[in-house]
Amino acid sequence: MAKTIGILTAGGDSPGLNAAIRGVGKAAIGAYGMHVVGFRDGFRGLMENRGNSLSPSDLSGILTIGGTILGTSRDKPNRMPVGKKTMDMTDAIVATYHNHHLDGLVCLGGGGTQKNAFHLLQHGLNVITLPKTIDNDVALTDVSFGFDTALGIATDAIDRLHSTAHSHHRIIVVEVMGHNAGWLALGAGIAGGADVILIPEIPYDTEIVAEAIRHRSRTGSRFSIVAVSEGSMSREQAATLQEAQALVDRAKGSKKRTRRSVEKAKAAKAKFSEIKEQVGNSTLQLSQELEQLTGLESRVTILGHLQRGGTPSAADRLLATRLGTACAGLVNQGRFGIMVATRGDGTEPVPLEDVIDKRKTVPLDHPWIQSARDIGVCLGDA
Ligand code: F6P
Predict the structure, then answer these.
(1) How far is the CA of 252 from the centre of ligand 1 (A)?
(2) Contact at 8 Å (CB) between 297 and 168?
(3) What SS3 state is found at 284?
(4) How many Å apart are CA 105 and CA 5, to the nearest integer?
């Protein structure tokens, strides 16, 4: 009997999602004779039973379109806002899966989606996932689709900022997305010729950054481009965050669950979130400090969601198509509980349980870091 599969996109949108939906759908229908049901707005659509059959014509003409034709949300099966409450809606999701007589569910998303898919796997659903994120931080895959497009957009922005920084003899601090990983800032910073690149993996010393900029001024370059990843932090912020994390861990580890220990745990978590928020909003402060320390005017450009929008690059369309078609092939073989990872020019199924709760950050000995140092880019630490 022909198989029926569900497909959804979850988490932040990203260029290449439609190319992946198309790849999975066209191969599932055309090569394997399956029936495909698309669910709206991530796991919420599955919970609310908002699924529609996807025909070949629905999958036509979407390759070059940004965003996702299915819509997305960050809702989690086990912590879903319903009315004014947050509820575990796993049972409703399992019921929808069975009502549609699904043989499998394809989930397209980043780290959070991998975790949510694993949760459904543990509740008996046949899930299979693809890695999508502009942050490139999903574990155990060489690369995720969306990253290449965002890299191009951020690089183009840095290129454009060069001429205005140069004309006005200014510092321009450009904030790049990436969550807690520096791939996007490091890649775009190198490709765009940034003079300073700050990433979360290397806490920075503001004085060292200022001295790199002053050195440029002394040697005739009276402007500087500072590419800063949104999760970057100063050495002081990193130390405070580490202390807050230790408090949270200690509170978690405490064996006695008294009212006092619960209060303590809550306070520790609140402190941690407060510092995290400060870190997330510190680009303006960094710019002001650099202005004071260098005597140069400084401006901030936050690229934000621009990096997630628009047409996917050729590389992302190709990657999403090959991951999507490989996924349909694995579904046809009855392989589930896996993420279809990128491995060189090919793909490789990796167990979902190995992917979850990990984040692929930039290793300190990564060749991109060495290249940046070799061409004299300041990474804020030396
Ligand atoms: O994970 C992708 C990403 O764009 C991150 O780079 C960023 O931190 C986050 O999503 C923004 O989330 P939202 O779209 O919910 O504002």
Answers:
(1) 28
(2) yes
(3) helix
(4) 6
Distance 28 CA to ligand 1 centre (A): 30
The residue contributing the CA closest to ligand 1 atom 5 is: 179
Flag whether pLDDT at 256 surpasses 80.
no
- Virtual torsion, Cα 361, 367, 370, 371, nearest 10 deg: -120
3-class DSSP state for residue 301? Answer: strand
Q: Is the pLDDT of residue 70 over 80?
A: yes
pLDDT digits over 94-142, tens only? Answer: 999 999 999 999 999 999 999 999 999 999 999 999 999 999 999 999 9
Local confidence band at 279 (pLDDT 50, 70, 90 cut-offs): confident
79 CA from centroid of ligand 1 (Å) = 19
Question: Which amino acid is residue 138, in one-letter code?
Answer: V
Choose the residue to mutate in 17, 68, 134 for probing ligand 1, maximizing ligand atoms within 8 Å of C-beta.
134
Quick one: pLDDT at residue 218?
A: 97
Residue 43 gets the label, from left (phi > 0), alpha (psi -120 to 50) or beta, of alpha
Q: What per-residue string of b and e applies to 236-255 under the rule 16 or more CB within 10 Å gives b?
A: ebbebbeebeebbeebeeee
Q: Return the structure tokens found at 369.
A: 């870091």
Listed residue (380, 376, 355) closest to 132, CA to CA = 355
Q: How far, in Å, CA of 5 to CA of 351, rounded? A: 19
SS3 199: coil
Q: Is the dihedral of CA 119, 120, 121, 123 positive or negative?
A: positive
244: Cα within 13 Å, side-chain hemisphere: 18
Radius of gyration for the chain, computed over Cα atoms and rounded to the nearest angstrom: 23
Round to whole Å and give the CA distance between 174 and 171.
10
Quickly state the pLDDT bin for 275 (edges 50, 70, 90): confident
Structure tokens at 288: 């002001």
Cβ–ligand 1 distance for 200 under 6 Å, the answer no
Ranges of H-type helices in 173-258: 183-192, 206-218, 235-253
Task: Write out the catalytic residue numbers.
Answer: 135
